[in-house]
């Protein structure tokens, strides 16, 4: 995990990851404009350099964001300062999300779930229950099984995700409201990818 942190820190320091598009993901913008994001409190899991969180803060949400890359968080804080956006950013491994001593009306994950596999997905889903209020929302965008080759990482990592995968991992404690095909928008050097946008409600 320490090596992975270093990898992403170096990527943010010397390059630009494909998901860093200098704006919020279009599917998040569309969901907000349709009134599909519940508030007032929102937690952005794996927030990267902060584009989604800063956008939500600008729309009146009370936003907290975290990422395991310290460099990404440093960039996010600088962006928020420049845009005078009131967002709380900090560094944390998503698998330790249960350590956060607060619950949120909505938790968003735009690009983290598909980086996990197997037991780590199960651990992550269990931990989400510690940060979401009852009847709260989890809004997730993950690379879809019909996205084709995902060349950002070798050996088809991260794994793509099917609707059946989503329903299976969130079968307990969650009610899936809808799943629809969206797009994981990438920076200009990379292709965009088909992604499942899922809204679900925490029922426990």
Question: Roughly how many Å apart are the termini?
Answer: 31 Å
Could you describe the largest sheet, including whether it forms a barrel?
A: 7 strands, mixed
Strands of the widest sheet, in order across it, are: 3-2-1-4-5-7-6
**Mean residue pLDDT:** 88
Helix and strand run? HHEHEHEEHEHEE
Q: Compute the number of structural domains.
A: 1
Low-confidence stretches: 149-157
Report the CATH superfamily: Vaccinia Virus protein VP39
- Could you tell me the strand content as a percent range? 25-35%
Helix content: 25-40%
Taking all Cα atoms into account, the compactness measure Rg is 16 Å
Give the overall silhouette: globular
Could you give the count of β-strands? Answer: 7
Derived structural class: alpha/beta
Tell me what you see in this structure.
The chain has a single domain, classed as Rossmann fold (3-Layer(aba) Sandwich), CATH 3.40.50. Strand 2 (62-67), helix 4 and strand 3 (87-91) form a beta-alpha-beta unit. Mean pLDDT is 88; it is low at 149-157. The chain has helices at residues 2-14, 26-33, 51-58, 70-82, 119-128, 163-169, and strands spanning 41-45, 62-67, 87-91, 104-110, 132-143, 174-184, 193-202. It is an alpha/beta fold and 204 residues long. Helix 1 (2-14) packs across helix 4. It is globular, with a radius of gyration of 16 Å.
